[in-house]
Write the structure tokens for this entry.
Amino acid sequence: MAGMLLKIKIPYASWYGDREISLNFPDEWRVIVAQPKNAAPLRDEEIKTAFEKPIGTKRISEMAKGKEDAVLIVDDISRPTPASKLMPYILEELEAGGIDEDHIRIIMATAAHRPQTREDLIKKLGEEVVSRFEIFSHNPYENLKYVGETSRGTPVYVNRYVAEADLKIGVGGIYPHAVAGFGGGGK
């Protein structure tokens, strides 16, 4: 096939996998590869420091004190958030705050995406987390709790596990979104 061949690696877990893929473009296309410069991933020590000295908020361990349970809301495999690198620090903070691992649930924030497979969960969260914790893919039609309505009368339903948890922690990033502008936050 004629044209320009471009090989790229999709980082972390994604629907494409974390392997190199090849793309072919017609010769007449002007292709620009936009990549961050000098943006090396954080080292483990830097991640640990970020959890020990958060900016603008209390440590998770402080927020967990006096709470009985916690829910971690994690973006799904379609987003490149390296959740498996963050989970050990989050779980360590929850334990230090007094929340037992039997009282921690993980909800995969799938939005309108498909439910996550075990393979997806292992790529996203790591084998140890998947084997130790109760994990659910959010379903927008089941396991919901009515929490009220908006000022315009729109009923609002929230995942029951999220609504009822004493402590709620979001694990994800903010990424460009083709339809909503940016994903990972309120749309």
